[in-house]
Amino acid sequence: MNIWTYTITIGILTFLSRYLVTAYSNSKTYSETTKKVLSYVPSAVFPSLIFPAIFYKNSSLVLFSDEVLAFTVAMIVSIIFKNIFLTVISGISVYLLITFL
Amino acid sequence: MYQSISTSMNRRKIFFQGIKDVLPLNIPVVLFGVFYAVLCIELGFSSHFAIATSLIIFAGGSQLIFITLFTAGAVPWVIFGSVIMNNSRNILYGAVFSRYIENKNGLWKLILSFFLTDQCFAVSNQYLKKNYNQKFSHYHMLGSGITVWIIWQLSNLVGIWLGNVVSDQLSLNFFVAITFLALIAKDLGKLDHFLVILLSAICSLIFYNLPLKAYVIVSATAGIILAYILNKKFKGIFK
After folding, report:
1. Buried b or exposed e, range B133-157, using 16+ CB within 10 angstroms
2. Interchain pair B174, A44: CB under 8 A
């Protein structure tokens, strides 16, 4: 299989994962419970994008690192200010400061 | 005529609101876009390939999985399986978004689905949840989606142009993690959401080494099941 066949197949697979349910699921048939449960999707998905990125290094769990320290600062800022921009800037600034000092 | 001007202004306003809302989330997109292009070149792929994969696939995670597994000589089913697992969260995003765009025609559904990235979902879900009765609320998703697409393509070009500018010392995943932290921060104060976040976080750390990056969908499913139980069995407590 050549590399362009891979690229196009992965492009189609990615698009279908976004398109099929978005376009064809009938939300009118969703029960009230389903609608309520779907409102938890960000809370259920985002932690799995966040925590391994902070606590794993080269496939090993690490509890104390530059990332964990900067993450803790960003977490405190996000809880206090509830502001995306401030959280991103504080986390990244602390991380860059620790990494390059 | 006045109505048509006000309609067009309304569309534009919502479209630009989408752009404005998604901009802070694009700091890691830029870094990842640059890193992806640099990695492509370092692994021996052409700059045309780096650009083509971003145009055709437009999913940073899947693109990284593809080029690293392909270079490592993985068999096709491992590459496709990993991509499918990595994309599986899009199905959950689609289930949420379907109710916001169910009255739109087929073309709109095609276009908006193409732009359904994590960043677009994160900000437009917050907007559409409050405004989905508005006639042009889907323009928010269009604005946020196109913005992420343009920034992703431009940052790839910057990566190709500048060469290896991203320090090996930096963890790019960290930048992505920080932006998503900002998005769930407001839900940490609600006990039901906090429990779902906690369970998903613990599961993702326990199951991180599962093959095919299955930890994302395993953790998300555990969180969704807990949300179902909380709403079914403890209805009175969590409203």
Report:
1. eeebbbbbbbbbbbbbbebbeebbb
2. no
